[in-house]
Amino acid sequence: MPTNPRALAAGRGSRINSGDHAGQRGVTNVDKETPKNANIAQQIFEDLQRQILGGKLGAGERLLGERELAAKYGTNRNTLREAVRKLEQARLVSVRHGRGVTVTDFRRTGTPELLSPYLQAGPDMVEVAEIIGDVLEPRILLLEYAARLAVRRAEPADVDRLSDIGDLLIAAFEAGDAAVVARGFQRWLDVLVEAGHSVSVRWIANSLFDALRDTLERFPNLWVLEPTFPDYLTGLVKALRTQDEQSAVTITRNYYERVDRQLMALLHALAGVNTTPSEVPAPHEDGERDSAVDAAPAPAMAAGPAPTQN
Question: What is the pLDDT of residues 143-159, one digit of tens each?
């Protein structure tokens, strides 16, 4: 057995580069962080995530052992461990030494990041509608509080930025340029939250907005047309300039309640649930809808309109 460092280094190098079984293990360890294997880990994670969220793997069930799962997916154990680590980070499984990997009750342990994948995998549209509906009111409360903080703490430069972005959004909305409105409104919301100069609100908004944006980008049929979008933008900026906190809160709530009535009516229709008159969207005041409004969807869940699909 070689005892000097050069011999040991040579032995390690020849082992990694050889074609025997031991050499292949060496290559696996070296390559475990490559983009290719990272992509495989992501694919395994998404497949197991779909099975859990779709009900094929229930709470309390144990996943197959590492060796069996690796063989099933045709990969190595290091890549599989990365996929399981992602599941654990998403709170979909718990990993305990000696007990393997157990599926958790995601309805209790999950976070807003599960909203979009659950919509893809969830078998029960009634529950999907309930989950989205339950998110809408906290979203309004968050935006109301963001508006309050902006009235109290915004600097003139913050309000000017909101006004400038709002002018561009209104012009794009009236021109029917949905792609510009989609990108711009996301930025507008970010600036509104930043105007409150609150780290904690910024963190909460990041989590909720990211989940809702991802959901609506993947499911554009959930976008709602709302003709009062320009009024919401200009009204809120005016409230900030005049430091009218109550007006800022009222404008925010009234706008999103109008949007949410339409959104919930759409969700209930998709789920086959009968809606009550209070859940049916209110008609436009003049009974007509302007052609520019038809062309450009206004934000449904505070995430910015998605580009139209061809």
Answer: 999 999 999 999 999 99
> 35-58 in b/e burial notation, b at 16+ Cβ within 10 A?
eebeebbeebbeebbbbbbeeebe
Q: State in Å, rounded, how far the first CA of the chain is from the last one.
A: 69
Asked if residue 176 lies in contact with residue 292, where contact means CB atoms within 8 angstroms, the answer is: yes
Confirm if 77 and 141 have CB atoms less than 8 A apart: no
| Locus of tokens 């000017």 | 160
Q: Which residues pair with 100 in a beta bridge?
A: 96
Taking CA atoms, 84 is separated from 166, 244, 248, in Å, by 44, 50, 45
Q: Which of 161, 143, 148 is nearest to 247 (CA)?
A: 148
CA atoms within 13 A on the CB side of 251: 22
CA distance 194 to 218: 26
Supply angle C-alpha 203, 208, 213, rounded to 5. 125
Distance, CA of 195 to CA of 235 (rounded, Å): 16
Give the span between the Cα atoms of 288 and 280, in whole angstroms.
17
pLDDT at res. 36: 64
For tokens 């009974």, name the residue.
287
DSSP string, 91-134: TSEEEETTTEEEE--HHHH--GGGHHHHHHH-S-HHHHHHHHHH
Instruction: Give SS3 for 298.
Output: strand
**pLDDT of 86-101, one tens digit each?**
999 999 999 998 789 9
pLDDT at 34: 53
**Residues 249, 159, 290, CA angle at the centre, nearest 5°?**
65
Which value, in Å, is the radius of gyration of the alpha carbons in the chain? 25
Q: What domains are defined for the chain? A: 32-107 (1.10.10.10), 113-295 (1.20.120.530)
